[in-house]
């Protein structure tokens, strides 16, 4: 086999297992979020700076996400989106996930006898840095 062919095989093999992760992990327990009560300050303290901000029909939105894409194999997404009232309290929120542990909690996947290897550490509460004046 020529050196070029060997190099091509090595690059293909390395790329087959390649993955890209964007965003930051966050807890799937949303019991702390209360519509019309939870304030943006609390969300910043718990989750840190949003991954994305936006606007939905005039309503400010914040999105948190963890996106784990693989070239070969299953990719996973976890998203949490907040819709804000004018007084900066939660108007609505939406959570979506394709991670196996979230599907198990929703009753959509049977619990495994041996837990899957977690490639992500359990998220810690974010320590909000004071804003400079």
Distance between the termini: 64 Å
**Helix share, percent:** 10-25%
Instruction: Name the helix and strand elements from N-terminus to C-terminus, one letter apiece.
Output: HEHEEEEH
Could you report the average pLDDT, rounded to the nearest whole number? 83
What is the alpha-carbon Rg in Å? Answer: 19 Å
Strand content: 25-35%
Q: How many helices in DSSP terms?
A: 3
- Tell the overall outline: elongated
| Low-confidence region ranges | 119-123
Describe the structure.
With 133 residues, this protein is of the alpha+beta class. The protein has a domain at 16-26 and 33-105: 2-Layer Sandwich (Beta-lactamase Inhibitory Protein, Chain:B, domain 1), CATH 3.30.1450. The protein has helices spanning 3-16, 40-47, 100-105; strands at residues 19-23, 52-56, 59-70, 76-84, 90-97. Strand 4 and strand 5 form a beta hairpin. The N and C termini lie far apart (64 Å). The model is unreliable at 119-123 (pLDDT under 50).
Give a brief description.
The protein is of the alpha+beta class and 133 residues long. The chain is built from 3 helices and 5 strands.
Topology of helices and strands:
Elements: H1 3-16, E1 19-23, H2 40-47, E2 52-56, E3 59-70, E4 76-84, E5 90-97, H3 100-105
Antiparallel strand pairs: 1-3, 2-3, 3-4, 4-5
